[in-house]
Amino acid sequence: MKRLRYVNVLNLKLMGVVAGASLVFCPVIVKAQTSPPPPLPPSPPLPLPSSPLSSIKILTPTPDAVIDVPATTIVLQFSVDATVELRVNGEIVDPSLVGRTETDPTTNLVTQTWYGISLKEGRNTITATALGAQDSTATIEVQVKGAPTQIKLDTVESRIPADGRSTATIRGRLLDANGNLSNRDAVVTLVSTVGEFIGADSKPDQPGFQVQARGGEFTAKLKSGLKAQTVQIVAKAGELEAYTQLQFETALRPSIATGVVDVRLGARGTDYYGRFRDFLPPGKDNSTQLNVRSAVFATGAIGEWLFTGAYNSDRALNEDCNCDNRLFRSYQFSEQAYPVYGDSSQVEVLTPSIDSVYVRLERSPRIPKASPDYAMWGDYNTEEFARSSQQFTATTRQLHGFKANYNIGNLQVTGFYGNNVEGFQRDTLPPDGTSGYYFLSRRLLVPGSENVFIELEELNRPGTVLERKQLSRGPDYEIDYDRGTLLFRQPVLRTDVDNTGQVLVRRIVATYQYDSQNSKSNIYAGRLQYNLSREINRESWVGTSYIRENQGSRNFELYGADAQISLGSKGKLIAEYARSSNDTDIASEVSGSAARVEAQGQITRGLFGRAYYRFADAGFANNATTSFVPGQTRYGAQLTSQVSQSTNLRVQYDHEDNFGIAPQPLDTFEELFSPRTDAIPGSKVDNSLTTISAGIQQRIGKATVDMDWLHRDRKDRMAADNQNTKSDQLRSRLTLPLAKNLTFLAQNELTLSSDTDTVYPDRTILGLNWAVTPGVNVSLTQQFYTRGQFEDNSITNLSINGEHKLGKDTTLTGRYSILGGANEVTMQGAIGLNHLWTISPGLRLNLAYEHVFGDFFGRNGAGVQYAQPFAVGQSASALGLLSGDSYSVGLEYTDNPKFQASARYEHRTSSSGSNTVISAAAAGKLSPALTALLRYQQANSANQKLVGLGDTANLRLGLAYRDPNNDKFNALLRYEYRKNPSTIPDSILLGSGTGAEDHTFAAEAIYAPNWRWEFYGKYALRNSTSYLAQDLIGTTTTNLAQVRATYRLGYSMDLVGETRWIHQNGYTETGFVIETGYYLTPNLRLSAGYVFGNIDDRDFSGTRSAGGPYLGLTLKLNELFDGFGLQKVPPPQDKESTVQTVVNKLKQAKAGTMQTVADKLKKAKAEMVGRKI
Fold first, then answer.
1. How many domains in the chain?
2. How far apart (Å, rounded) are the C-alpha atoms in residues 889 and 799?
3. Which residues constitute the domain of residue 1021?
4. In this structure, is residue 894 part of a structural domain?
5. If we measure between CA atoms, which residue out of 1143, 1145, 1059, 1151 comes closest to residue 1107?
6. What's the pLDDT tens digit per position in 342-360?
7. 818 and 740, same domain (yes or no)
8. Pick from 973, 962, 1037: which is nearest to 1002 by CA?
9. Quick check: is 459 in a domain?
10. Which UniProt keywords apply (predicted)?
């Protein structure tokens, strides 16, 4: 029975397996048959094999396929009786490339594979023809990825918070001419207007941030800054360039508030921790006084607005320990108390204000690419009043007061008011080929108020600035606000040459405020701008602005309208009108108008045009904008046509009228160095120049030949003989590549007519241009003047030109820093790491040489040029070039992350004297805990006509000890040597014996052996020597010593004792304080102490002393406005508890299950044992 039951079960199982297999392989058999099946149709007889008609198909590649490499495999299918002919782009393919042939006898079709068929980049036509009883042809087109011809750039995120931490992903693709992704690898340089690129720079020796594009694709990360704004990102790969935009939006962070309220009851003038100048005043009024001081900072979200505010009842927010109060609270390397601090941290000033209050309400409107809405009181700039459509109406200033900006749809409303404005000055200086020192016309500048630019314009056509770059304090230059001097990080050459061979001259333009002793000055302005388009490279708007500045007895008013209209991606129209009225040093009130219209773009395919009109009255004034010539009109048009791939034709018409007043030449020292706001008027000018030119550019092989005919008609109606000249000149130019990265150029300008133009002489140019690395060129040019006013003059120029942006740039951020030693701002300010030519990894070279033979003080349409140290106001047209030689050589080493160094030597000789600039610096980690920095600088005056000043030299040495593994002991050390630190042009009037030297040594340390004890000490010494005359020398030595000890009796009570001693010849000051404090709460400290001080002033006020007990109460603020600023502790997370509970339950369930199984096994075992028994 049992065996039979087992067999039946087995049979059933086998039947189940068969049924399952039937369901899988023949599912139709499971269908229920409820009726007889229909009769099957009769099967047709199978056809006999026969030869099909001649036909052919291209199986591989598929039509419109995109192929990575210029070779492919082609698979054809055709009938057996056909003969195949394969063509690619009309050319027959060698039949030997057939690698495989298969014949299907059932279908009589042949499948044939051709291997390694060559293609070209771009579109390819593949044609296969079957030759048989009836010809058949199959044709397809495929594309081969080619070299990149464009860059596609975008960002994953359109908006990220401006919190200094968020990052945006930048994506880019290299596309070929057909819009396909190029498979080429390339190095792409990224630059953004703000922000910091993070990650590894693939080419750290090249300017910019480099990323590697692999397979035509690349990505990068950009970290946001702290300012909400629209960011423009540029990607460059060779000649290719692409742009995109990203929005840094207002970061609505959780609220935070911090501050302190300090109450002190004690004797007047005995506050040991107050200002030095307020301790023991000469008045000897030491009556009891109650002082209440408070300082608070708060920021946080109020709805969709971010509030940021700060207040200090005792001092200005920007005031430092030296009682200096400067705009934006920004400091240079030379102004730091210690050269190096042993860390690489950065300080961001969020609440800059030269008074006691800073308030800002800000939000990012939900308008794509719109500027943030805000209202503020504090320090600000005027970037909204210096758009690309503004020149005559533009204002670039650093101010303090109220400012607001608000967007109403496409309408942007901006206004500002400044209540604390000093005198405003504009200086233009001609460089001498070195980095400085360049003396401005004023002394005692308002710190932080300056704007410094480098402008390029034609030597013979003043008034039209071709290029303008704004520089940044620290990375690009160093300024001494007391002396009024500029020292650049790189030599500033006098001349340059543009692509057409025109000689360009550089100008240093500086605008700033100076101490004018006038407290009644104020400024206010407003602007309305309607944005027609905010699309990148297609921005369009119309706007109007108004500015008024009251300077006591002098007033200035400027108003106008401007517009920028995009004409597609390759053209735009700019129109502007301005009118000004102001009081000058000469006349009571002068007014005038200015206007300009510029249009450029592609008219038709291959035809580009440009038209312009510029006009400025002789009485029009604006010193806060780009340079121009008052009393000048210039208009013209230019057409360029691309006739063929190798031929371009061009024609241009230009007319210029000059009807203003030229500046008066200055000769005496008093005239040259007397500070003025506007130039002294000289002689009137009344002349015109009409220029007509036509030319052709032809490429012949690798060479490019340019030929231009220029006709000039010059009329001077102020000349004694009413001089009129008409001249014709032929300009020929040859550009010949000698190697892949070496180009030779030659240009000749020859007068064909009997009359020679007064301003434009005959000239010959020879030059070489060496592309060292992408973005860095070494150029050598030699110019010879053979006729005209500059006959027998010559200019030799050797320079390294790079695409390095002169200004704060993310391309420099993070590259020049020593981790844990110094941040990049300190490194750029101390070492000046801006060299261009990489001669080996981590080692860069900078070379410059310039030779000017003969002075270039000629006559042009705006007047006569003459030698002068600076030109005030808008009188830069009178600046000329002095003859002389200048050269410089610099080296920079950055290959070791723990050591960086830089050295530069510059020298200039000319008819007005010589100037030598020496700069050397090094910084690095001597050990994990010890950081050192050494810098030496020496320079003289670089101004024209300024000779006789002694060299100014400075040596700074700094050491910082900070052990990253043990923070019990930290120390700083400084040594500084200065020679002639205060020499100014006025010193020349005092004789040649003036000068000064001083040595300064300072060290301080802090030691905390445990949480109870803390010791602090400081010592400083300065020795100064003044050479008032050769037989009159004064020496002064000043000492400062300070010691403090703190002992914490417990977590709620401490005891502090401190003393300081100051001594110099004839003066001694001593102060002592002991104080105990008790924390009533963690935020409230009650203190009591005793203070004593003594001053012995032998020469002036005699001896005085004061002292006595005092009481104090200090409250730390961390909660305001019903919880505003209090960081609440988040509640316990339920998920964590739930997960723990589930885990415990699973463990318990598993344990219970295992126990149950074990019990059952034990029970079954017992039963089996019982059955056996």
1. 5
2. 10
3. 899-1117
4. no
5. 1059
6. 887 888 899 999 999 999 9
7. yes
8. 973
9. no
10. Receptor
